[in-house]
Design goal:
- This protein is α/β, with parallel strands linked by helices and 386 residues long.
- It has four domains: 11-46; 65-120; 128-192, no CATH class; 221-385, 2-Layer Sandwich (Nucleotidyltransferase, domain 5).
- 42% of the residues lie in helices and 8% in strands.
- It is built from 16 helices and seven strands.
- It has helices spanning 11-22, 27-34, 38-46, 65-76, 81-88, 92-102, 110-120, 133-144, 149-159, 170-178, 226-229, 271-282, 304-311, 327-336, 351-362, 374-385, and strands at residues 103-104, 107-108, 236-243, 249-255, 261-265, 292-295, 314-317.
- The strands form two sheets. A five-stranded mixed beta sheet has the order 5-4-3-6-7, with helices on both faces. Strands 1-2 form a two-stranded antiparallel sheet.
- The longest helix is centred in the N-terminal third of the chain and has 12 residues, at 11-22.
Length: 386
């Protein structure tokens, strides 16, 4: 049975997560720094579309904690409200409202009043598009025509040069799209953005040091041994990541000869997490069952050299955008969607859960084996070669 939920982030951890996100770090890097799953960080960041909340500050007009302590001391000594107000250089009406709000059962406590005032002040400022229907409709129409927020903002300045109510910055348009809690622009309009991103990334975010699209010193699938291609002997595997909600993933491994499947829990999509977890799992199997691994061009296998050193298993890579070259793994991932529907948070499954699901899949009879199952096929082959 899958474990439900996971511990969330504290207020301090959220603040650090946002600081690191603004600094351009990836979700996996932030998760490792905080000792949290990347999915937990994703939940915090995605809730605001990747746009960090503004830092809260007290108004210079608001009563300070020191002033509230002076009010508390004055009330305790029986001083009048006018007298306390005069000492603080505040209007008596200000103190009267303060005491009426926070004087529970005739006792005014400065620290409690200060906390309550801070919480009460936390109310969202109305979004500009929410208060200007005509502007909102103009922005929505142009987004539907595939205009970028920058183009829309520039066009509005030209079209309405003397009407500030019909002008808006491109960043505000992005905020209205990505922070869906504002509820002013329909989420469907996001598909018209050229980047197709669901979250705003920091300008400092970089892929430097994170190989994408091209794996350094990758060995092509065309150099894979012929015995792997014709499925003659066991030990040649195909691998990939199955993705779920909240930036969660599991690694799927399928043996080409028997279609035997292994599912591996990973802490993130980064290469260190994936390579470490897959290496750990495969070393638990007999050595004759590991001869090669075929993967796609995803950066999660960028550290393939470290994987080969740890396991003595050579890694071969498919051609770009050629998933059919890992057809066995692609078909298996489709079967696995019965257990992991799209939108499932995969981080809630333990390794024991994944092993149980893999076992169910491996015990299904396959027509290609005369309705024997992958376990029977693999064990029979190992026995005949042993």
């Amino acid at each position: 049975m899958a474990r439900m939920g996971r511990p969330g982030l504290s207020a301090e951890q959220k603040a650090e997560a946002w600081a690191r996100w603004r600094g351009g770090e990836s979700l996996s890097d932030i998760g490792r720094a905080l000792g949290k799953h990347a999915g937990s960080v994703h939940g915090v960041v995605a809730a605001r579309g990747g746009i960090a909340p503004a830092e809260r500050r007290r108004s210079h007009l608001a009563l300070t904690l020191a002033e509230r302590e002076e009010i508390s001391r004055g009330l305790a000594t029986g001083a009048s409200i006018r007298g306390i107000a005069a000492n603080l250089n505040r209007a008596p009406s200000t103190l009267s409202r303060e005491i009426n709000r926070h004087d529970a059962r005739g006792t005014y406590r400065a620290s409690l009043a200060d906390c309550q005032a801070w919480d009460r002040a936390h109310r969202p400022k109305p979004c500009r598009l929410a208060t200007r229907p005509q502007l909102r409709m103009a922005v929505a129409r142009k987004l539907a025509l595939d205009w970028s927020p920058e183009q829309i903002a520039g066009w509005l300045r030209v079209r309405y040069p003397d009407n500030s109510d019909m002008q808006i910055s491109h960043e505000t348009i992005y905020r209205s799209l990505f922070v869906q809690a504002h509820g002013v622009l329909k989420k469907e309009l996001m598909k018209h953005l050229r980047s197709r991103r669901m979250m705003r990334r920091s300008r400092l975010a970089s892929t430097e040091g994170q190989p994408r699209g091209q794996i350094i010193d990758a060995v092509s699938i065309r150099e894979r041994p012929a015995e792997a291609e014709d499925r003659a002997i066991p030990g040649h595997w195909e691998g990939d990541l199955l993705s779920g909600a909240k930036n969660s993933h599991i690694a799927t491994l399928v043996e080409r000869h028997s279609r035997y499947t292994m599912l591996v829990k990973v802490d993130g999509k980064d290469t260190a997490s994936v390579v470490g977890a897959v290496s750990r799992e495969i070393r638990a199997l007999p050595r004759e069952l590991w001869r090669s691994l075929t993967w796609d061009r995803g950066s999660e296998m960028a550290s393939h050299k470290a994987f080969t050193v740890a396991t003595d298993v050579k890694v071969y890579f498919c051609d770009p955008q050629s998933p059919w070259q890992r057809g066995t793994n692609e078909n298996t991932n489709r079967l696995l969607r019965q257990y992991f529907p799209k939108g499932t948070d995969l981080s809630g499954f333990s390794q024991a859960d994944l092993d149980a699901i893999a076992q169910r899949l491996n015990q299904r009879p396959r027509r290609t084996f005369g309705f024997h199952n992958p376990v029977d096929k693999l064990m029979a082959t190992v026995a005949s070669t042993g």
